[in-house]
Amino acid sequence: MSLPHFAMPRQYLRRRLPDRDTFTRHPFLRRCAPWLGHHNLWHLNRRSVAGGFAVGLFCGLVPGPLQMVAATLVALLLRVNLPVAVCTTFYTNPLTIVPLYLLAFGIGRLLVGAHGPTVVPPTPEFHWGALGETARGWIDWISQLGLPLAIGLPVLATVLAALGYAAVHYGWRLHVVRALRRRRARMAQAV
């Protein structure tokens, strides 16, 4: 007997996301086990996954390499799905971060008005051999964008989080409703 079709999103995520035991077996994370015990951090339901997705989208725009740390802390605070929150932060990567920051800069310019730079400074080059200089170059580039970026990033992060929450929440619900209708139709045909 196969599992009901409406359980598919949950099983798909369960196969691909780490569970609580994976986290608590890790030597560094074992010390954090008391904070990782809340069931909503690991539960795969519509609200917890949608909340984790929204947290990941919001924290993905945190500057620097702190996205996963921020997503973990916010997921713990809001008690939403932790693995989904952490994994969702990967939407920002070296290919997507510059367009997202430029979009945030544009949003900030609209909200701030004429204050701040009118032209986006050129992005720095990335050199694997000189990571310290590369990091300093990116920090300088971000600081040159100033107030428009500082205002645009939280606005863009909030919009992405709200849209992501709604998309997952209603997409999950739509999938479950359709699966139940198909199941009822199959049962009616069998009778």
UniProtKB/TrEMBL annotation:
> What InterPro entries does the database record attribute to this sequence?
DUF2062 (IPR018639)
Any stretches that span the bilayer, and where are they?
53-78, 90-112, 151-172
Q: Name one Pfam family in it.
A: DUF2062
Q: Which residues form the DUF2062 domain?
A: 30-179
User: What are the record keywords, sorted?
Assistant: Membrane, Transmembrane, Transmembrane helix
UniProt name for this protein? DUF2062 domain-containing protein
Q: Which organism is it from?
A: Chitinimonas lacunae
